[in-house]
Give the backbone structure.
Amino acid sequence: MYAFDVTRPKTVDEAVAALSQEDAQALGGGQTLIPTLKQRLASPSALVSLTGIEDMKGVCQDGDTLVIGGGTTHGTVASEGGAYPALAALASNIGDPAVRNRGTIGGSLANNDPSACYPSAALASNATIVTNSREIAADDYFQGLFTTALDEGEIITSVRFPIPQAANYQKFVQPASRFALVGVFVSKHADGVRVAVTGASEDGVFRWSDAEDALSGNFSPDAVDGLTASADGLMTDLHGDAEYRAHLIKVLTKRAVAACQ
Amino acid sequence: MTKATITVNGKPVTAEIEGRTLLVDFLREKAHKTGTHVGCDTSQCGACVVHVNGVAVKSCTMFAAEADGAEVTTIEGMAGADGSLSAIQAAFQEHHGLQCGFCTPGMIMSASALLKENPKPTEAEIRHYLEGNICRCTGYHNIVKAIMAASGQDVTSIAAE
């Protein structure tokens, strides 16, 4: 790693001030950023650790919404997110236990890895990403591979998930990395069904609108039978080609809907 | 350089660190607790698992600066003051849960975290929990058996194949 300073502010305001320095970067749980630094793929002058900000940690229910602090670990979401069972189940299967004890929801969403689990939950749930300066709808937030609507130095302070009538996440695990080879999150709300796909597209998480239309009319696995997910723009790598991933999208969507029944 | 104080197995250790000093380097080079191993250095293998404020973390993927003021338990903190093995360590010995021993400190620390959360895990739960700990010798079978035995469960049903 190149040399850098680490600071641990106690409040969001202190963190925002620290991040205004040139080449400063926010550090969540570090489960992606630290390996990146070791490979010298990033060279910040200062890391602003968000793990000391107590206000950004924890899970609470606000009516029909589950509010999760940006600094909340996957392990905490798994154990305390029971009001939204599909989300807690997703969190309980990210990485491994030690990774879940450090990695945070805000870090995952800010990074927007194309194979990460949380982006699919946020997009399918129509979540709101709350930062130190504004609120961003999930539909506007995810903007491509490792790209989000966040400005330089902007911090995710919490994420608001409307709790759906039914939801399920199906992850086809890439066993070496434990990321999703393909993951599909299906979420049924009063105004329709949303289907978000991670691990598949070269542009990161996306909504499969054909399946959403079909499932909003008939929420059963059969509703997807006549559809084909397009392989255009899907990833091809040594683990699977675009056609294979397209096939998985349909299979996992059906499994997710079946699991909701 | 800044100073950090980390309580390692009950004893405070204060040392100069850089921002980039990893917790595992603090433990091995400043606290001289070399039982915590660096296997992959990429947070895959789990040989460096320690407990920070009671929860299992990979110490190669956490900065020492972030553990300033924290309580850390390493493999050296698992045995009794008289050197007697903990129940999990004794079960690893009894059931041949190690061969070369390189992964063992991480395995013991993960197993201990598991049994704290789930005192009577099933075989499947143990295997799932150990996803982040890699062993290249044993094939995992006797590790799983040792953890079941340490939790006071009958292990005759998972006899070696």
The domain at 57-162 of chain A is CATH 3.30.465.10 (Uridine Diphospho-n-acetylenolpyruvylglucosamine Reductase; domain 3).
